[in-house]
Amino acid sequence: MLYYSNMKRLNIITGHFGSGKTEFALNLALxxxxxxxxxxxxxxNPYYRTADAKEILESNGIRVILPRFANTNVDLPALPSEIxxxxxNHETTGIFDVGGDEDGALALGRxxxxxxxxxxxxxxxxxxxxxxxxTKEGIIEILREVEAASRLSVTKLVNATNLGPETTAEIxxxxxxxxxxxxxMTGIPVGYTAIKKGLEISVANPIxxxxxxxxxxx
Amino acid sequence: xxxxxxxxxxxxxxxxAIQAGCRLFFGYPITPQTEVSAYMAKRMPKIGGTFxxxxxxxxxxxxxxGAAGAGARVMTSSSxxxxxxxxxxxxxxxxxxxxxxxxxxxxxxxxxxxxxxxxSDYFQxxxxxxxxxYHLIVLAPSSIQxxxxxxxxxxxxxxxxxxPVMIMGDGMLGQMMEPVEFGAKEGRKLPEKTWAANGTxxxxxxxxxxxxxxxxxxxxxxxxxxxxxYKEVEKNEVKxxxxxxxxxxxxxxxxxxxxxxxxxxxxALREEGIKVGLxxxxxxxxxxxxxxxxxxxxxxxxxxxxxxxxxxxxxVRLAVDGKKPVEFFGRTGGIVPTPxxxxxxxxxxxxxx
Lengths: 218, 353
Known about the structure:
The structure holds two protein chains of two kinds.
Chain A: E1 10-15, H1 21-30, E2 36-41, H2 54-59, E3 63-65, H3 83-88, E4 93-98, H4 102-105, H5 112-117, E5 120-126, H6 136-150, E6 156-159, H7 169-186, E7 190-196, E8 207-210
Parallel strand pairs in A: 1-4, 1-5, 2-3, 2-4, 5-6, 6-7, 7-8
Helix pairs in contact in A: 6-7
Chain B: E1 5-8, H1 9-19, E2 24-27, H2 34-43, E3 50-53, H3 57-69, E4 74-78, H4 80-95, E5 100-106, H5 122-126, E6 137-139, H6 144-161, E7 164-170, H7 171-175, E8 177-180, H8 216-236, E9 240-243, E10 250-253, H9 257-271, E11 276-281, E12 283-285, H10 289-298, E13 301-306, H11 312-320, E14 326-330, H12 339-350
Parallel strand pairs in B: 2-3, 2-4, 4-5, 5-7, 6-7, 10-11, 10-13, 13-14
Antiparallel strand pairs in B: 1-8, 6-12, 9-11
């Protein structure tokens, strides 16, 4: 797929929880051709996370690095030492799914020296139908908090505006205009519009059709 | 109506409480309900309210006791082990006839148990939990929208009957996201809080908030009066959803998110030609006894499905009163039953196994 060809090796996916960040990270990982590693760095959410999609990722040849106790009863989100291997093995594309807010982004700080050595892409995924990111001001406030906590800079915005099963093209486009406004105000380009497969819209930036992997039991 | 937004159950319950006029929240974080506290911590200071992270759950519930005694709309929230810690305070609040709202986003137990979703606090919520003769009104929403609507109503119900209202959801309800809207709702017409200890300004006798009675006869009289009020609650406040019950040979009893898993199973079973329905208690106390009595006239049997070893099943059996068999299927410790497992349990009943 053309629009994945100019990807950087290190890709950090951030955004407020509920932005659609994990689904975006999963789809980005599954779209890769070569060696790929996905790192679940979410230290905020106890359920509904990358760990839930471990099987499908591994059956597609993607290496999955999870917090030591993800999806167990140990409420201690320790990050495993294997994460370092993504920085030292230059053959692999790394996708880092980072936890929900500035507290989640704090975990990135520990890897700051590695990100300083190599150009990275840091996506900020936006759902303009989430209460704290309804407006450009709200979005920029959280974006800056995430940047401050991680000591890294967002390089691409992603419009993933959705209302779960009630998402329509109008809702995505309403989010698009807010995200484009954020782009104008911050100078950060819109990397993708991520929409669930089946929705048809037309925007200036590339579209990433999302297959949804994290499912509820009903 | 306002535009819909996508919210996590824990955030939605916090926002709903704020919109219901709650300006005081006392809590202590615990997975899987910590986002309630996190949301309150962000929002309360912006709207002139108070969020206070207490030093423990015991402290938090006693802050609720004090605020409720002063007549304020107040809420606390926790998950199973934290709710156990609050039981003494809850009993005192009941004993002082005070209204408040308590959220329990249930996780696996006993003890510290686990952080995955469960429904094993049913007995604690419905049959007591604290000491003494009493009931809580217990609401069990199954979607985020219902959680929002019920939270707003819970404050009114609490004020109307001067009782604590507990909202019980399992961890899934706290963590999952769904579209919701917050509409301005017509509140209930509520009596003035003439009992509140909020300052006499020298104009009236003092109000005293108390649960200790020196004479046994005084205490008995008060408890009897309280149970008269409970009769009113049982008469007015029962809420239940009946789904495809009319022609059903088998009726599933399930509450909360598990009722949604059951609905998926029911549709699959009906494809196979097995007529199955669902009775979903929305209020766990008062329990919708009448719905089960009525269904017992026409159904061949009942299956209660819970994320526990079988707790609500006892109330279903009491309601069905031996007229039809009441079976049980459950998973526990944080495991969520699947639609397939529920289908198998119904098929077994049909085959008489």
